[in-house]
Amino acid sequence: MKKTYLYWLLLPGLLFLMVFMIIPIVLTIGSTFVRDSSFSLEGYLHFFKDPYFLKILLTTLQVSVITTLICIVMGFPTAYYISQKAPRRKGILLALAIFPLLTSPVVRSFSWMVILGRKGLLNNTLINLGIVDKPLEILYTPTAMVIGLVHLFLPLMIISLVGVLENIDHDLIRAAQSLGASRIAAFRKIVFPLAVPGLIIGGILVFVGSLTAYTTPALLGGKQRVIATFLYQNAMTLNDWYLASVIATIMIVITFLVIGLVNKGAARLNPKG
Length: 273
Description:
mainly alpha; two-stranded antiparallel sheet; about 80% helix
């Protein structure tokens, strides 16, 4: 009886997800297979045969992968450092890490435009120091998008890893060192495998967020298209909702493929779960 009561508590949330997420997604995906009242794969064939569309997709994947890798490289040592601190100091450091999430992506993107522009802070500093002779072309490139997305999603990676790293029993590390393992070996054999769940969660959050981000690529990328800005262009500017639905479906499929591949990779890194 108690379990039945608990299941009923799930009903409002399930109904909300069904009406506002699952049904719209199913209808969107289903509409891509219907053309002139008959089954058709025309939209997907057109997308994958067009070099311009493929370039946009590849650019998006490249930016998302690079952003995820940079967030892992920067986020892991930061999260490990925070997890080793006392609770009070840990709270302060976590607050500082989370602080960028409290700022609008529009404000962050405009700040990077000021920094990365031809006459921005970065180029002026490099020219004054004599490191470069002419301004670097960083703004409105994939590099600018990666910088903005790392700033946007790095806190998510740090939070995901801190929650895992702080629960690792330090007696395991001390035991390994007492048996002759170096700090690097103890980290590689104990800390890293136990941190894999945090890497999975953080990696998926960063990759999917980078894949679907619109504001940061739109402002920092300029005319450089990614799949999210391309979807918006087709839906709102060109009014081509069919192609927009195809693009949305491709994004959904890529998301599930990445989650599956990451889980398989994690199973190999940590076979015991």
